[in-house]
Amino acid sequence: MSEPAIRLSGLTKVYAGGKRALNGIDLEIPRGSIFGLLGPNGAGKSTTINILAGLVNKTGGSARIWGFDIDEHPRNAKASIGIVPQELVFDAFFTPFETLELQAGLFGVPRGKRRTMELLKAVRLDDKAHVYSRTLSGGMKRRLLVAKALVHAPPVLVLDEPTAGVDIELRQLLWDYVRQLHAGGTTIVLTTHYLEEAESLCDRIAIINHGTVVANDETHKLLGTTGDKVLELVVDRDLAVAPPELGSCKSVELKGPRQLAITFDKRRTNAGAVLAMVSAAGLGVVDVSTREADLEDVFLELTSGPKAKNAAA
Ligand code: ADP
Ligand code: MG
Fold it and tell me: What is the mean pLDDT of residues 2-31?
């Protein structure tokens, strides 16, 4: 078997101020996957990615990219990965064309093998090839950074929150391009705040919390790890607070004055029994729907409450 695209072992980072951002990350990202790295703000996603990019020095553990250890073979490791950072860093006084040419030069891509216009076209910036980068919109800058990460045709592309602040239409365009790259054989790693995006795009997902991996599985299996089901109700009068505990239900949440979301474990009870408890609590039900737990529910279960604290301890 070939090495995974990325292998992290006991990866640790303590920042200069003493902040422990990574607490021993163990993670394998298979070649050919579209891998989602998820976690709440401050979980350590960018720190992990910035270590791979060579922008942050780890304080412990090891990282291999495409089989190359980042300490022992830094050049090969760097050549194997393209990174789109979360921060919009760009060269204000260069045009997109110049930015890509410069980057290709840094990576030693010979002139004859450069794909500058092809890449600009792929991210729909060919008509902006020769304007100053500082005149580009946020979404265009993001797409320029994607093209820049690809100049040396790396087998692994990492995108850190690529759609943060990018409007819906451009987000779709970006994902279409990412899917196209993946179909062409590129391994994709991304972090995103939009859980539905990760759910529809990624074949594997790891969730990190407080610098530790708390889940790592195929997306469909991760969604199946919870036996939770959610019952959404509209009741017949305004409520100021959610009713306290309802029998064996896991949570009762007030979504609007008359809207309740009740989460229950479908292996222990069922929607009929839950509805009976709602009636017994003196509430009339006007409308009702149920849904299976989605990634958001799994995510919340793993990153909040006592369970998450256990996992992080
Ligand atoms: P994420 O990308 O998952 O939101 P980060 O990796 O950016 O998380 O941050 C992880 C933790 O490390 C946070 O608590 C953050 O405040 C801290 N952190 C990030 N960068 C630095 C830095 N340069 N110096 C000190 N602490 C940092
Ligand atoms: Mg981040």
Answer: 96
Cα 64 to Cα 29: distance, rounded to the nearest angstrom? 10
Q: Per this entry, what is the length of the chain?
A: 313
Question: pLDDT, tens digit, for every residue of 243-263?
Answer: 777 888 888 889 999 999 998
Confidence of residue 1 (pLDDT cuts 50, 70, 90): low
Total domains in the fold of the chain: 2
For 298-304, the CB contacts below 8 A with 24+ separation are 298/207, 298/215, 298/222, 298/223, 298/225, 298/226, 299/38, 299/195, 299/207, 301/226, 301/228, 302/207, 302/209, 302/214, 302/215, 303/39, 303/40, 303/43, 303/207, 303/209, 303/214
Q: From the CA of 19, give the closest atom in ligand 1.
A: 26
Same domain, 159 and 66: yes
Q: Is 263's C-beta closer than 6 angstroms to any atom of ligand 1?
A: no
154-184 tens-digit pLDDT: 999 999 998 877 777 778 888 899 999 999 9
85 in ligand 1 pocket by Cβ < 6 Å? Answer: no
Q: How remote is the CA of residue 193 from the centroid of ligand 1, in Å? A: 16
pTM beyond 0.90:
no
Domain residues for the domain of 27 are 6-220
The per-residue pLDDT for 312 is 40
